[in-house]
Write a structure and sequence with these properties.
single chain; alpha/beta; Ubiquitin-like (UB roll); TIM Barrel; six-stranded parallel β-sheet
Length: about 475
């Protein structure tokens, strides 16, 4: 077998000396190993990992593909940047004075004016004195501008940006007045109460007018400008409920409670499965809060009969508001509900009463059928009084009082039976209003309080009208 060995020796060889006299010099670095005669040696630079590797040239096709990829990425980045620049500076369409126009997105109205040459074609308005005489020609507004129907002040033209789709009107400037002081007088609305019926409510709320006297800072002129805002008068209407269909509806209402008979009334209503409206008296509620709560818990509708059994027509505005407010407060404290319906004691509520307190209730409710129970005619007469007069859409007056309660409790079961035999559905006042779609659309029984901009009216001539 042929002997093989590596080209390196584990033992450190002894350096050979140069032959004497021949000028021979050993190579620098490690001395060569002595080779054995007859041995075959392997080249360790090709077979083991410790030696240097020969450098291999990369594939030219791979180098070309890498260059193409870099070019594509660069082009994509350039396209993206160009797209962003275009998008941020693109033109958008608007409507200017009825015709289509364009402007760079987020351009301002002032830039549009300059681009379209409107700064040369629009004529400024004049500067006027308070009496409308001209103080300075072309000293007024430079332009008149509306954006989507809203006026734009001249100071905002340079900051109002356009994004496309806007509708602008840019025309000649308006005349403007000199700086001036204003002495204003508010004109209170008047009130009218018209119609006939058992339900009264505000159809049109009064809005105050305004008159002004101006004094010019530049001219020194004082001038009465007269009425600069027209007054809107308040309109209260009386009406009756007219159910839309041929069904019969009637509302039973109880005044002056709670009383010692209230619980018996509630038991009868529960047994018959009907609901009613109770106009509670504030001082009676304070005396029997548990009965007021029982009425509310039974699901019946609540209204106020004012605080005490007092004729409201003779009260001052302050006294009237106290009577009404205290009545509602007592009900709210006992039941957690604050009603909006008011029934004036004795059915008396004048135009002046309306003017003084219309913001405290949603409606004043009277009656169209009087049972007469307060006259103590007997239970049979109470039933006949109602049945002889009742019509669909009527509101029936009953009295929940200690003096009337005995006869009322005796009459109530028969009255309910007779009404239902005649085809009537017994409902609350609010439910009755809903049967008249025209009235229900106009009257919101949940709304209490003055609308924004409205004011209490004044009575020009008291007519002492009642229901």
């Amino acid at each position: 077998m042929q002997k093989r060995t590596t080209s390196y020796n584990t033992r450190r060889p002894t350096p050979r000396r140069a032959p004497a006299g021949k000028g021979y010099q050993l190579p620098r670095g490690r001395s060569r190993a002595t080779r054995r005669p007859g041995a075959t040696y392997l080249n360790h630079t090709q077979g083991f990992g410790g030696g240097r590797r020969r450098r291999v040239n990369p594939d030219p096709r791979r180098r070309a593909r890498r260059s193409y990829a870099l070019i594509i990425v660069g082009c994509a980045l350039l396209f993206f940047a160009a797209s962003v620049i275009w998008y941020l500076n693109r033109s958008v369409s608007i409507t200017l004075n009825g015709e289509e126009a364009s402007i760079h997105i987020n351009g301002t109205i002032q830039q549009l004016i300059e681009n379209e040459g409107l700064d040369e074609t629009c004529e400024p308005g004049d500067l006027l004195a308070v009496d409308d005489s001209v103080l300075e020609r072309e000293g007024g507004a430079r332009y008149t501008v509306t954006l989507d129907g809203e006026a734009v002040s001249e100071d905002a033209l340079a900051t109002t940006e356009l994004t496309g789709g806007e509708v602008l009107e840019i025309t000649d400037g308006a005349d403007t007045y000199e700086e001036h002081t204003v002495q204003a007088t508010e004109l209170a609305p008047a009130i009218t109460v018209d119609g006939i019926g058992s339900i009264q409510y505000v159809r049109t709320w009064g809005v105050p007018g305004r008159s002004e006297v101006w004094t010019g800072a530049q001219s020194g002129i004082t001038f009465d400008r007269g009425i600069v805002q027209e007054t809107v008068d308040c309109e209260v209407v009386r009406t009756s409920v007219s159910p839309d269909d041929n069904s019969r509806y009637v509302a039973l209402t109880f005044d002056e409670g709670p009383s010692g008979y209230t619980q018996q009334i509630l038991d009868i209503l529960d047994e018959k499965g009907v609901s009613a409206t109770f106009f509670l008296q504030g001082d009676a509620v304070e005396e029997h809060p548990e009965l007021a709560a029982a009425i509310a818990d039974a699901g019946h509708e609540l209204g106020s009969n004012a605080y005490s059994n007092t004729n409201l027509t003779g009260l001052t505005g302050e006294e009237l508001r106290s009577q009404i407010t205290r009545g509602f407060d007592a009900i709210e404290q006992a039941t957690g509900q604050r009603p909006g319906l008011l029934r004036a004691p004795f059915g008396s509520f004048t135009t002046q009463n309306w003017a003084d307190s219309m913001d405290l209730m949603s409606a004043v409710v009277y009656w169209s059928v009087d049972s007469g129970d307060w006259e103590l005619p007997g239970s049979d007469a109470i039933v006949e009084n109602v049945m002889g007069s009742v019509r669909s859409g009527n509101i029936v007056l009953l009295t929940d009082g200690d003096a009337t309660g005995e006869q009322l409790v005796a009459a109530l079961p028969d009255l309910i039976d007779r009404l239902e035999e005649e085809g009537y559905q017994i409902v609350t006042v609010s439910e009755l209003v809903k049967t008249d779609s025209d009235l229900a659309e106009e009257l919101d029984l949940a709304r209490v309080g003055l609308p924004d901009g409205a004011a209490l009216p004044t009575v020009e001539s008291e007519t002492d009208e009642t229901a």
